[in-house]
Write a structure and sequence with these properties.
Pfam families: Mur_ligase (PF01225), Mur_ligase_C (PF02875), Mur_ligase_M (PF08245). Keywords: ATP-binding, Cell cycle, Cell division, Cell shape, Cell wall biogenesis/degradation, Cytoplasm, Ligase, Nucleotide-binding, Peptidoglycan synthesis. Belongs to the MurCDEF family. MurF subfamily. Involved in cell wall formation. Catalyzes the final step in the synthesis of UDP-N-acetylmuramoyl-pentapeptide, the precursor of murein. With about 425 residues, this protein is an alpha/beta fold. The protein contains 14 helices and 21 strands. Strand 14 and strand 15 form a beta hairpin. Helix 3 packs across helix 5. It is globular, with a radius of gyration of 23 Å.
Length: about 425
Amino acid sequence: MPNIDQLHQLFLKSTGICTDTRKLKQGNLFFALKGPNFNGNLFAEKALNEGAIAVVIDEPEYDKGGESFILVENALKYLQNLASYHRDQLRIPVIGITGSNGKTTTKELMQTALSAKFKTFATRGNLNNHIGVPLSILAIDDTFEMAIIEMGANHVGEIASYCKIAKPTHGLITNIGKAHIGEFGGFENIVLGKSELFDYLKKNNGIPFVNTNDAVLKNMQKRFENAVTYPNEHDYYPANPLTGGVFLELETATNVVSTHLVGQYNFMNVAAALCVAKFFEVPEEAAEEAVATYQPKDMRSQLIKTKHYNIISDAYNANPDSMEVAIKGLVSAENSESVVILGDMMELGELSELEHEKVGEIAVDLGVSKRFYIGKLIKAAKKTDKFGKFFENKDEFIAYLKEHPIKHGSTILLKGSRKNALEDLLPYFEE
């Protein structure tokens, strides 16, 4: 069993880490990770045959001997330890980011703004868990001048464990909301879990960026003498009305920043990115131009124009807070007929029925013209929305659409948890 320095030397000779032989590249170092439905040890020999420099395994029966097989007690733990060791070799600012909503959008906006001055690494996609965080750290080479590491969590202690690997020098919590409240076991535990990033910064003289519009985060600011706050009155504020009825604008005393982001709720994500860029002395004009060119993707606040409809695809995920602001954004930004197609919200525990009821109430109270609900959990909205249309699944809804097409010219919001995969409906609006 090699020590971590030896493993790190081997890693530096490799072309990167691989945990899936289907994505293996020549010269990769393969880690045989395990999960409920897979065992990477089964594919170790295949990885070598297909060009891996070596394989890290944790089951002796798959050890064929020689230097190419590295047997350890726990491959995942070794991956995390390797990432922690690699992080210690990096001499760059590392910004940790977590929060209930807006993590990925804020991360991407921040990378875009910082890249106007620095070569900036950011977590790719949503690699923000116990495997994704170490993989992200190990993807940072010595050409990068800055790094942003996204950290997701659904239980207490998770963010703390990621901080031990990523060792952030700076940190940002987008907000504290009800995401994963069932898994966390209540709102108080969400606060505890998300605040672990700030706990780490406090103990290690790190610098937090604090969203003072969030009461819980504003209260945490008191623990720091070096907190950087946003939004500040002299910096940015939301423009009104929105550009073209859909896209977010920000104003300063002398300038207007137009974005490609849908919804007023994205203001805080942009403000966070511009705050961080300003702290690291990115020229304001360059940072503003960078966020103005940012194009949302992956079903996050994405506007898709078809022949007959404007579709706000915000279907990557959903929780009570993001659902509410998305519906508000639709209504406040649009003069045409507004339509919501909403799916189940997952991981809400005993609050699930109540929170789904509230979704119906919000949609009705805000005056959404047409309201469609798809899924078993969101059926609870029937109690508060007597005239909405409810469907067990997407197939039922598609069959309904064929007989009752939505009025041309409507703006449609697609919003639901990842399990719903509401983006599957998009082709039916593009015909």
